Amino acid sequence: MLELLTPPGRKDIPCQTINKEKKTDMLLAFKENSLPQNEAVDFDTYASPYLDNAWNPDRFELLSLQAHPNGVELRLRVAEYFGQGRVPFHLSNIAAATWLQQMGVIFSRWLDGDTEKSSFVDMIEFSIRCNRPIKETEELVFSAVLERSRSFRGGRLHVARFSVQNDSYTGKGTFYYAGKDSLKQLALQA
User: In terms of C-beta density within 10 A (0-12 exposed, 13-18 middle, 19 or more buried), how is residue 106 classed?
Assistant: First the structure.
């Protein structure tokens, strides 16, 4: 059985918590709370000002990109960021994920010699752990080490571990490289 719990700061809304002894499913706890008494929440009242009217204003400059068969390293400089001049820089995990995804695309194509970009590359799995904030702006170092690579559905699957700024952010990504001429094949099917 789930027990009723009052969220901090909201004495008027009871919600249910998970019974640890019975290992009640988190989704079930949410469904149990999805009753008509739930109130609509105004997005603008609680959302970060970053989303207000400045989504992704950060601009980065590529300093260098180096690859070898076992990995890749990308160096960037922060040219402009949200709140510049008012608040200190903090690399969001969303911005880091975008650069890591692009680094995986480039590395997958480089490994397979696809200089014509005739393939598509999907990041099919991704995890990131933010161990400590990244506040540097002059040189951000993104690196990845290829853990394994194998044939998969007519293409290649590349799995890499990554680090951003000396393990400030760490994680793992899996990239599916569809193979040379996969974009031409898709165009013919359309």
Answer: middle
